[in-house]
Design brief:
The protein is α+β, with helices and mostly antiparallel strands and about 190 residues long. The protein has a single domain, classed as tt1808, chain A. It contains five helices and nine strands, in the order H-H-E-E-H-E-E-E-E-H-E-E-E-H. The strands form two sheets. The chain has a seven-stranded mixed β-sheet with strand order 5-3-4-6-7-8-9. A two-stranded antiparallel sheet has the order 1-2. Strand 6, helix 4 and strand 7 form a beta-alpha-beta unit. The longest helix has 16 residues. It is globular, with a radius of gyration of 17 Å. The N and C termini lie far apart (about 50 Å).
Length: about 190
């Protein structure tokens, strides 16, 4: 399909159903997200380093006792939006309880979202999602930078509904601690 055809048939407001249809129809496996302002983003496939980071974090959480049913990679999250709800695909999520099977998961039981910053997604992961996830009331949001130290920035939701940077450390250091040191109630 040409870019002209895509533009001609693009809906005025992209719904989560539209987003799910785009994701399923893409033969290249790209991720599609839509912001709370209705901005469509096509996210390139993650590379192998991205996958290893997600696996290391998942293993760290599960080994420390977080139930495997409460840890998800590549979870689709429904973020309350203006004209239509936003849809984000988080790299790693931790939930207070197992979730029912759904394409789009509500943020109700979501405790933590971790995004591994990929080349080209810096502004989305470090600016747009910070605002959206805070507005949605997600208690914690962590980013893993792709610098030599794989710097992890931990944000906690403050009483004013805005994320406050709580800590910053290399991934190797984080993985030597207990998730309970950073996630109250874990």
């Amino acid at each position: 399909m040409s870019a002209e055809a895509v533009g001609r048939y693009m809906p005025e407001v992209i719904t989560l159903d539209d987003l799910a249809a785009m994701i399923s129809a893409d033969i290249h496996g790209r991720r599609y997200e839509v912001s709370t302002e209705g901005v469509l983003t096509v996210v390139p496939l993650p590379d192998s380093e991205h996958a290893v980071i997600a696996t290391r974090l998942t293993a760290w959480l599960v080994t420390a006792g977080v139930p495997v049913e409460q840890v998800m990679q590549v979870a689709n999250i429904q973020i309350p939006g203006y004209e239509a709800d936003a849809g984000r695909t988080a790299d790693l999520t931790v939930w207070s309880k197992p979730q029912e099977r759904a394409v789009w998961l509500a943020v109700t039981d979501l405790l933590l979202v971790i995004e591994i910053v990929s080349r080209g997604s810096e502004a989305i992961d470090q600016v747009a999602k910070v605002k959206e996830y805070a507005a949605a009331g997600i208690p914690q949001y962590w980013t893993v930078a792709r610098d030599p130290a794989l710097t992890v920035t931990l944000h906690r939701l403050g009483p004013d509904g805005i994320y406050e940077p709580a800590a910053q450390m290399p991934l190797a250091w984080l993985l030597q601690t207990s998730p309970g040191d950073h996630l109250p109630g874990m």
